[in-house]
Write a structure and sequence with these properties.
Largest sheet: 7 strands, antiparallel
Number of strands: 18
Oligomer: single chain
Shape: elongated
Number of helices: 3
Structural class: mainly beta
Helix content: under 10%
Strand content: 35-45%
Length: 245
């Protein structure tokens, strides 16, 4: 039986990588959300991209605002009990996450996608049109001036297989799938798998640390729903994970 390397030092950092410029369709307004809150259920290290062999780092509910500078301390405190096997090569990380997020943000529209110029689309507690689902985002009425944003519930879209509704189409869903996210339509949770920046094999003298960086710059978006309302959603964050001594 392999010996266990009992202690893994966890460093979880939050960063905005301002040099990254995300570009999406011209008729979509983008800004950086002031809240991007997710609930993690489980985090595992994997020995391949398929994640068939895993080491659990944490398995309990933990809610984190990855648009907040406190995210690092919050996630670091959440991951507490784990063991890495000496001689095992870890290549990927896997997270099981609630499909429902809490988001907050606003964006000034410039006549995009049928909306009036110099108006605002902002999250509100009770959406104007329906609640968010896997087939459609919540929608709020455009307003003539900036107003304070409020927390709003939003759900990760269903797969890009025709079950996403007229508004989502395949664009948003495809973006999530291309970023390592797998979700069964209308499921309460989804999984995300990402490659470590480089593979890592602990030895008897290793003192590993894991560094996780989130970036949500320009990931708050809206577009007109054809009725003068703003369909509001977020794109997946950029996540970078490093495991090294």
């Amino acid at each position: 039986m392999m010996m266990k390397l009992i202690r893994l030092v966890i460093y979880v950092l939050f960063v905005h990588l301002f040099f990254i410029n995300y570009v999406y369709a011209d008729n979509v307004c983008t800004s950086t959300p002031t809240k991007y809150e997710v609930t993690m259920k489980k985090v595992e290290l994997c020995t391949s991209s398929a994640c068939t062999t895993t080491t659990v780092l944490a398995e309990k509910d933990g809610t984190f605002d990855i648009a907040s500078a406190s995210a690092g301390a919050d996630v670091g405190s959440w991951i507490t009990g784990y063991a890495l096997e000496i001689g095992t090569t870890y290549t990927h990380i896997k997270a099981t996450i609630s499909s429902t997020f809490t988001i907050k943000g606003t964006c000034e529209d410039d006549g995009l996608n049928g909306l009036a110029a110099d108006t605002w689309c902002t999250t509100i507690g009770t959406p104007t049109v329906a609640a968010s689902s896997g087939s459609s985002p919540a929608a709020t009425a455009e307003v003539a001036s900036s107003v304070a944003a409020a927390d709003m519930s939003w759900m990760v879209p269903n797969k890009a297989d025709g079950d996403n509704g007229a508004f989502y189409g395949s664009s948003v869903a495809t973006t999530f799938e291309a970023n390592g996210i797998t979700k069964v339509n209308d499921a309460a949770t989804f999984t995300w798998i990402g490659a470590l920046s480089s593979s890592y094999t602990p030895t008897a003298t290793s003192a590993p640390k894991i560094t996780i960086k989130f970036d949500v710059t320009n990931q708050f978006q809206h577009a007109g729903d054809g009725s003068g309302n703003c369909g509001i959603y977020v794109k997946p964050p950029t996540v970078n994970v490093t495991l090294a001594d």
